[in-house]
Amino acid sequence: MFDFATLYTLTVFFLMVLFLYWRPHGINESIPPTIGALLIFFAGIVPLSDISIILGFVSGASITILSTIVMSIVLDSLGFFRWAAYNLVNRARGSGVLLYWNIILLCFLMTLFFNNDGSILITTPIIIEIVTLLKLKNHQQFPYLLSGALIATASSAPIAVSNLANLIALEIIGLDLNSYVSMMFVPSMLGIMTISSLLFYYFREDIPKIINVFPAAEKDHFTNHHHRPDLHHNAHPLPHPPTPRHLLIDRPFALPVQDISMFKVSIAIVALTRAGLFLGASFGIPIEWTGIFGALVLIGYRWYRRGVGARDIVEKTPWHIMLFAFSIYVVVYSLHNIGLTDWIVKLLREPMLDSHLNACLISGGLLTLMSNLFNNLPSVMVGTLTLTGMGLDMPTLHIAYLASILGADIGSLITPMGTLASLIWMFLLKKNGIKISWASCLKVTIVVIPIGLLVSLFSLYFWLEWLFF
Q1: Closest to 257 (Cα-Cα) out of 268, 267, 265, 246
Q2: What are the tens digits of pLDDT across the range 434-447?
Q3: 458/138 Cα distance (integer angstroms)
């Protein structure tokens, strides 16, 4: 029989998950976890001593993610992403296939430079605008939208700094940033390339072979409609005959020279900040310090060049992400306190100790299942605490941990509720009047994602066995 504490904790947890995804009246996603955390704390299930432990796990990772979001807001204010979107289509040279791979590359790089949630927030509106301006039919839009979202989310696996869950788990397991990348980059990239190829094969009939690159009037609409008062936001340019490719190819987007130089310097600041995360980690510098410094430098550079202060940063930055991360981990930590992780340890410890391959597949499979049922943020917490409680030798612990990250970052993509980024993507589509059902997504992901996950897990096993163990 369950005691009161167990029943109480499970009730709070499942109600939190229900309201987190239901979000009646559009309530902020941080509210259900915050209420759940308060209920858990006042019931004494997570005492103050545990709160301080959770703060140590969550604060640095949350600050790092916030700093990357701040940098993305600054770049957006400079018009960088609209410029990138136009050039993305222009460089497709009239080929829908090349446009597909350009979008895949964009989503991958955005996640690498920022994080999975930030990448979704940046790339989804770009892709929506592209497919709208190209006047693609619904079945032609779907490959670009879904593939971009899946790759943007999966691309948080190669380097830990692209995902809040990865960073927090990294703190718990005691693995440094550089070691993570050396072990994880190759296996996760093989999985991402597999998923990209499978998605392309799945959508091969729907991806248009030829697209009409922007005619002059549409180019003007695309580049200037947010800056011209005479154009209404709902206005659409009249159809034009396709412009011959040679008139558009290799013709640079018309921007003042000073704007191009700003773009270059701004991207250099972002790139140096990302490199600094790894360099600083090797010298024991907390990664959040590097992230904060890079964000402040970018804000200062924009102020120097354009005289724009930080007001838009304060207004647009999702400060509630820290409250969300802290609260959800308090609730999940309560599951650990009532013995859920102990139960999983007893069930899985012996099979995982049998071999590294078992540890890899069991850990990756467990996190895939949990992530798709309850979201990957709390699932990574439960999984990591479970692994640290198994008393595994260090090589087995590392391979099991990295496999769990693959399950949380890649395996979680089977259902839209698997990651916060996927839920944000669905919200953005609905906001822009694009109807894509969960069922239509599942038809694709249930085929593609398990194969990509298995490729990643087996690659991880062979990579670590060959290189490290």
Answers
A1: 265
A2: 888 888 999 999 99
A3: 36
**Angle subtended at Cα 15 by Cα 12 and Cα 16, rounded to the nearest 5 degrees:** 80
Q: Could you tell me if residue 38 is inside a domain?
A: yes
Structural domain contains residue 10: no
Q: Model pTM?
A: 0.75
pLDDT tens digits, residue range 396-427? 988 999 999 999 999 999 988 788 788 778 87
- Reduced to 3 states (helix: H, G, I; strand: E, B; else coil), residue 82 is helix
The token duo for 235 is 């206005």
Q: Is residue 22 part of a domain?
A: no
Asked, for residue 1, whether it belongs to a domain, the answer is: no
Question: What does the block give as tokens for 430?
Answer: 């609905």
Interatomic CA distance for residues 43 and 215, integer angstroms: 64
**Number of domains forming the structure of the chain:** 1
pLDDT, tens digit (0-9, with 9 covering 90-100), for 295-307? 999 999 999 998 8
Residue ranges in 79-229 assigned as alpha helix (H): 80-90, 96-113, 116-133, 138-154, 164-173, 177-202, 216-224
The amino acid sitting at 400 is A
| pLDDT band at 175; cut points 50, 70, 90 | confident
Please give the pLDDT value at position 194.
97
Q: Cα–Cα distance between 323 and 351 in angstroms, integer?
A: 37
Q: Range of 334's domain?
A: 28-234+243-467
